[in-house]
Amino acid sequence: DIQMTQSPSSVSASVGDRVTITCQASQGISSWLAWYQQKPGKAPKLLIYAASSLQSGVPSRFSGSGSGTDFTLTISSLQPEDFATYYCQQANSFPLTFGGGTKVEIK
Amino acid sequence: QVQLQESGPGLVKPSGTLSLTCAVSGGSISSSNWWSWVRQPPGKGLEWIGEIYHSGSTNYNPSLKSRVTISVDKSKNQFSLKLSSVTAADTAVYYCARDVDREGFDPWGQGTLVTVSS
User: Which of B39, B49, B102 to mutate to test the interface with A (most CBs of A within 10 A)?
Assistant: First the structure.
């Protein structure tokens, strides 16, 4: 299985801050990576696919980068509605696997 | 737009079989997509269970493969999950989701909590 390691596991930030979350794959996955946002009691929401493509309807303050084994999700200016848990997911090979999550909390 | 809705018992006895259905609306299950099940134990992360194509082809997570069956009913535009020999470790919110060309899961159902307890 491909292991997906996210860091940090949690981050405290203020509205307007730039937040960066990293995801490392245990082996190369090309650009087969997606990012999700999950709020308490809700289903995950797709933000980024193919490592850097913004899903329709997602604000442009979200961006993704990387390929191979190292990936980044950046929120350029944190908004109140962005406080949530973020997950990466690899789609390169079976079984499809997720990172452990990064909780973005209010500072 | 496509919407997904899970349904099934919220409580299953240990050693029993968990059975859930995902109804697809706003689109056809026979479109060129894979349809997945993902679960999330309370307070924990996401685990992919498996997927099915409208042809009936499936892919399963090896960690669950011996206990999982995913099937599709094109006439009802829905797909289903069966997980046998459940234990408390199978207690989780179960989500169904569409996998669009390996470009991520979207949309997701709202999720349904299944508790394994006697």
Answer: B102
